[in-house]
Amino acid sequence: xxxxxxxxxxxxxxxxxxxxxxxxxxxxxxxxxxxxxxxxxxxxxxxxxxxxxxxxxxxxxxxxxxxxxxxxxxxxxxxxxxxxxxxxxxxxxxxxxxxxxxxxxxxxxxxxxxxxxxxxxxxxxxxxxxxxxxxxxxxxxxxxxxxxxxxxxxxxxxxxxxxxxxxxxxxxxxxxxxxxxxxxxxxxxxxxxxxxxxxxxxxxxxxxxxxxxxxxxxxxxxxxxxxxxxxxxxxxxxxxxxxxxxxxxxxxxxxxxxxxxxxxxxxxxxxxxxxxxxxxxxxxxxxxxxxxxxxxxxxxxxxx
Length: 304
Fold this sequence. Notes:
By secondary structure, the protein is α/β, with parallel strands linked by helices. Helix content is 43%, strand content 23%. The protein is globular.
């Protein structure tokens, strides 16, 4: 009888391509991964891993069994979803991830709704950039991730995942209040062709979007500063060190000396929830999506 946890280890090795990557994905030590694989090789009576320089690779038998392992694990997830759906109760545990401004802007209200409506549900959360969130969902590290893309640049979503829209987020341009355009009712990105920009770190989806968008307008952006946190970006703007795109979701207090001006073009961040298709019937997933949507709707409702 094949051991499910050892098949999970083999599946992680196949997806990550290394023992260390599998260990990180499974939140165990590399020694634990090696031990599980040794036991699995004894169970099947065949060599599943072979040395490849300093690392390892799957043998033909290893790749064959890894293909079956992925299907078996998907069926286990589907069985768990069906059992939860038949019971119809929102209980157990659900793990959520979101990019930082969504975590700040949506999680507090969404978790409050879940605690009030489903007190038997345990919720874990983590901040992750969109690409990391997608990988975590595929690995099974989290059950649902809140991700984003832009109206002119979509985030690729792999097969096997389900996506639901949560809200659209309109950005502004943040600039020092002494900037020549600070009194405008609206601005375009091309108005800042000669300005220094404060951007997200290189390699992040929003940084790539900013470079793509400015270059599509014939502007070679002058990226002067990189900062992952919006509060850090706005602090640099307040000190007079450039301009930045400032989405409204999770923005928080704006420091003195910063002027926010809407962008005149139709430019939106689309915020989505994604989860594995084989978990689609889990009541906890559905409850989390509805809570996140409720938190998003509350952002657009007028304060009495």
